DNA sequence: AAGGCAGATGTTTACGTAAACATCGCGGCG
DNA sequence: CGCCGCGATGTTTACGTAAACATCTGCCTT
């Protein structure tokens, strides 16, 4: 029953065709294009997908018809037919940390390169409820795979209702035994930081760590501690911040009071920034009196006062590996596990120097 | 023809059902749930969508069956049927600027709140080809609306092939006559910056502007110029950076040479950071010798040396308005135009002070 | 010259969902 | 007592695409 054989006037209300409930206005379908081009819709499909076996002449006609009607394939129908969405979901906490953002960006770029779109699932507040909410939204979402930029204990806390058969890759975590994990080599970087300062002649190295409950912070602190012990040094007490520059400032005011503190390894560049301010305020010169080293190498690090020696994280590589891993897992359908570590690189600038001569 | 009346052994190859080409494993469909619950698939649909008119008993049976089979609705089929994806596409340049990231984050949160997902369309390099590429990817994408975080001249440069009937909202642009635009009140903020410095007693204000070709930079520079002229002051020559701290440093080395320069308005906080470093290096004290004001109020601004006076941008509000506008446009199907400006707020910290007494 | 084969195109069908319409049973009311 | 109406549920159909299969044309091979 074709609508064409009904006279238009028989439908006074008008617009009877395509009684969409949605908000999108009518668009041309393959059938429309086929009708205009005088071919079957299957031929339109072939042209649309660039298949061989279509005469150049026919192809031109179809393309012309497509253009005239402004045809664009309906991706919902496509996804339904093909059984895949060509979309990767990325679930992450607030994009307030440099690392998450850079990783996300790299993921988006890599995904685009592979022909995949990226759907962003933000979790406003890192509470269990919020995380669970994001995952339940995810359940209804049109994604073929998921990349989680989140510490795994929060992942665990939420009774995860991950859609079955959707592959997951996790960043920033140490759960390689349960998930596929991609992460920066936090331990290696931290050891390099400590070694750099010891090599300069410092007796020991203080650590301005990240917040309690953060695995990244934990691993950096552990590695710092281990590196000192291995070198036969006594680790000073751990000082904690919350990643923010402000917390680094507060911790710095405290550290400035310790005259025996000549070298500080801050767990990220923002806290190092606050630390620099506190030391400056208290008249402790960097690097003459105190050496400071950061972690991340944010773009601004080279413009701190003084320019910050820090450990460069290759977030682009992390993001790329996430996409690569998750797509491979999709293809082999695989419960692959294990952790891929991306090395850091020490960037020496002007905030580290040998300790002041003993007086 | 139901598959149920064919004996399983008649298909030796196995797996004949669901010969998916895609990568997703088989999931239960409504029909499967219906069969198990002993109802029709339409009843399953009603339960799935929370419609009334289903006995509580039936509902429970269906829910049990759903749970047993791990049913989750197929969003592709849903989108196809409903004619909408409940997804907003966000197209943006590299997420290296604070503003873009914060705006994106706010968009994602607002969209989630409205039940919409956000698909990210990154444009690696701001060349015409890249932008065009992103838009052509967009064409095939399952989105109901698009938010563009990009300067409009790049939008124009790309021969935009926006899907018809997909609503667009643009951020960071002055094309209110052609698009729906949401932006920070760049001009108002810049005037406030200049006024703040003049009120402190400075004779004039220098401007460390953003790169040539950026509308945001242009508008900030124009407003700076206009505010000075209105106040009867002579605008010094414009100095340009490229938004990076490094460029601010380079420009700062130059500015430090001008002894008559007592106040600088930097077009963003990163450049202000570089400027602070340059001034410090050249022995020009901030704020005693030179006052510096930034723009953006990035989280670290309060930890600069000295803490930076700057103009706070409310990116969260910008993002929220983007979503609100684009959804409204979708609903009214509307070619609405015009610009919505979000005001800035002056945050006075310690980098500005009255000029040094004339000697 | 006949058979066949390959390439071009058309036809059928299914993907999973949900609107529209059909049916069924039961209680209330005239 | 019978009919109407309504609530609960089932059946049909369409959304747009693309795989699988069917058909048709014409040229090449023997």
From TrEMBL, chains A, B:
Top-level taxon of origin: Bacteria
GO MF terms, alphabetically ordered: DNA-binding transcription factor activity; transcription cis-regulatory region binding
Keyword Protease assigned: no
InterPro entries, alphabetized: HTH_LacI (IPR000843), LacI/GalR-like_sensor (IPR046335), Lambda_DNA-bd_dom_sf (IPR010982), Peripla_BP_I (IPR028082)
CDD domains for this protein: HTH_LacI, PBP1_LacI
HTH lacI-type domain span: 28-82
Annotated Low complexity bias: 1-11
Keywords attached to this entry: DNA-binding, Transcription, Transcription regulation
Disordered: region residues: 1-29
Record protein name field: LacI family DNA-binding transcriptional regulator
UniProt source species: Streptomyces spongiae
Higher taxonomy: Bacteria, Bacillati, Actinomycetota, Actinomycetes, Kitasatosporales
């Amino acid at each position: 029953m074709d609508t064409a054989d009904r006279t238009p006037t028989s439908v006074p209300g008008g617009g009877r065709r395509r009684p969409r409930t949605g908000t999108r206005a009518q668009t041309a379908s393959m059938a429309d294009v086929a009708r205009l081009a005088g071919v079957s819709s299957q031929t339109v499909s072939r042209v649309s997908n660039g298949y061989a076996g279509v005469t150049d002449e026919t192809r031109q006609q179809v393309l012309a018809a497509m253009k005239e009607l402004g045809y664009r394939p309906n991706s919902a129908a496509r996804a339904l037919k093909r059984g895949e969405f060509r979309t990767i979901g990325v679930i992450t906490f607030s994009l307030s940390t440099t690392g998450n953002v850079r990783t996300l960006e790299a993921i988006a770029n890599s995904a685009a390169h592979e022909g995949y779109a990226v759907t962003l699932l933000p979790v406003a507040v890192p509470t269990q409820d919020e995380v669970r909410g994001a995952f339940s939204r995810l359940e209804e979402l049109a994604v073929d795979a998921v990349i989680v930029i989140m510490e795994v204990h929060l992942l665990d806390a939420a009774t995860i209702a991950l859609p079955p058969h959707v592959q997951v890759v996790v960043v920033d975590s140490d759960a390689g035994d349960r998930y596929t994990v991609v992460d920066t080599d936090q331990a290696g970087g931290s050891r390099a930081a400590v070694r750099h300062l010891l090599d300069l002649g410092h007796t020991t190295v203080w650590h301005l760590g990240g917040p309690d409950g953060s695995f990244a912070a934990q691993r950096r602190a552990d590695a710092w501690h281990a590196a000192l012990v291995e070198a036969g040094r006594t680790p000073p007490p751990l000082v904690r911040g919350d990643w923010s520059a402000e917390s680094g400032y507060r911790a710095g005011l405290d550290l400035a009071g310790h005259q025996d503190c000549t070298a500080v390894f801050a767990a990220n560049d923002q806290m190092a920034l606050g630390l620099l301010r506190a030391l400056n305020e208290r008249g402790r010169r960097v690097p003459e009196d105190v050496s400071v080293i950061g972690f991340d190498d944010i773009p601004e690090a080279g413009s701190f006062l003084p320019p910050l020696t820090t450990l460069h994280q290759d977030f682009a590589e992390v993001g790329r590996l996430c996409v690569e891993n998750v797509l491979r897992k999709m293809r082999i359908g695989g419960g692959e596990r294990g952790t891929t570590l991306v090395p850091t690189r020490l960037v020496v600038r002007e905030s580290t120097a040998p300790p002041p001569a003993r007086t």
